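DATA SHEET
Item: assembly model
Revision: 1
Owner: S.N.
Input lines:
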Amino acid sequence: MASNIKIRAKNSNGVTTVKSLMSHVMETGLRKDKETGEPIPAHFIQEVTAKWKDDVVMTALWSGGVSKNPYLSFKFNGGEAGDPIEITWVDNQGNTETGTAEIS
Amino acid sequence: MIDAKRRILLKGSLGAGAVGVAVGAGLLAPRAVLAAWPEAAFKAEDQSTALKDLLGSDTIEDSDKVKIKAPDIAENGAVVPVTVEGEVDDAKSISIFAAGNNTPLIASFEMSDSAVPFVSTRIKMAKTADVVAVVQTADGLLGASKPVKVTIGGCGG
């Protein structure tokens, strides 16, 4: 499956800034369907792991309180142009997706 | 004969159905995949309980080393941009709370040694309330808060 995670990573003065956009409904489980009144089941990303080469730089633990189609930006010391960045998410229904990009 | 087969088929699909429900309700798969996801902290209805469960303490020292960037007024509570920076060398994690939400803990970011204590994301806010950021350091928890006025709540749709 083509990845739906968009990643931009840029190194400047030794610090790499990563910006990413994921595609996910991020349902809290608290909302109800407006027409049927049925509760909409919780469906949200629970864990995001960000790797620079083989090292985990950051692990994010999320609730359904993160907005739909989540945006995430973080920074780390190090990184050179061409190094791979990998971001993987896992949601509460067991789905997972991984995106990669190179530092520019 | 046909009846017997039908019974087996029914039994089979019922069994599969039950597993499907269990997975859907978050009982099976996520636990297996995500042993670390702190469910109790995320389900806690107050910040203190969530903090104790997540970080082992709810003692926060207010600190100007914790910077929160969020709008004064959020027109749409479903998408409130929040950036948190900790001006410390040894941040282990950054946690973000929306004090007015049913379950205030929004997210917690675990930092590796190379990570800079900086995160930026977008969160949902049910109503006007404080955004609280907690930076975990070796010496304890540093915190700051920033009021955000929400004109349309983010949890109703």
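QC remark: The CA atoms of residues 85 and 118 of chain B lie 4 Å apart.
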